[in-house]
Amino acid sequence: MANPQSSLERALSRLLKSDPPRAKSLCVSVLGDALAPHGGAIWLGSLIELLAPLGINERLLRTSVFRLVAQNWLQSERHGRRSLYLISEQGVRHTSHASQRIYVGGAKEWNGEWTLVALPRTGNGLAERGELRRELTWEGFGMIAPGLFAHPHTEARAAHDILEKLGIPDRALVLSARDLAGAGGLPIASLATQCWNLDDVAEQYRQFSRNFGPLEKLLDEAPSPAEAFTVRVMVLHNWRRIVLHDPQLPAPMLPDNWPGHAARELCGRLYWKVFDPSEAHLNALAGQDNERYRPLSPEVEMRFGGRPG
Description:
Residues 196-283 form the Transcriptional repressor PaaX-like C-terminal domain. This is Phenylacetic acid degradation operon negative regulatory protein PaaX. The strands form 2 sheets. The chain has a 4-stranded antiparallel sheet. The protein has a 3-stranded antiparallel sheet with strand order 1-3-2. By secondary structure, it is an alpha+beta fold. The chain is 50% helix and 12% strand. It has a domain at 113-178: Alpha-Beta Plaits (2-Layer Sandwich), CATH 3.30.70.
């Protein structure tokens, strides 16, 4: 007779069924959160075994890994009949850039400074302007006027990196600015709800709390290492999908009772609740017969405000 599912297993099954993760996106989540802090190398067979409980079969995973290699997220090494995959330098840059938004979040204070990106009326084709707008929006910039994008508390380096990436470093102006609304002008911050889709992001945070809040009590009974790893991946993957679309405006610009604050606190509690057993599972699979597997980077201890005492 088969063993009955635990309450935690049933909850995880419902979450996976209601919102099945995409294989490639899930791979990126696991690479950045779990593998990068251990050196970023894993045998393909180990990765298949790690992600099987999340509904990712071998065929889907192989296809996803192939695409990540083609996009220079991963590099591959052949060792006889086995394949070892390593996070590339570009993959390291991408995951490092995302880490601030995933594990730290927006600034609690703000000095009133803005980074502006202005597109001249001539010199950029429609395709270039459209691509630049997509990249700036992904980075959290809002369009405050045609051809003018703004973000508070974002380093100008991020804007320059986007322009370099698109091959148009000399096609836009990157400026630092400060509101002079005291002289009778309109403060940029007053346009927040028009320039950033905060209502949609807020609802995503509420949905995250509704979906994963019930797991907190279920985790009072210690999960197995395999269950803990599944919880960690599911929570972090869903969290990552939200925060990388959140402009992460400074706290003074956000509406009262912003649901992102409660969702971030929940995510951090769940993450640390399963972290140690999830690491045991990761070490047993990813660290097996893998000379490139490194001890956990101490920087991880600072995620989500730091490991609870």
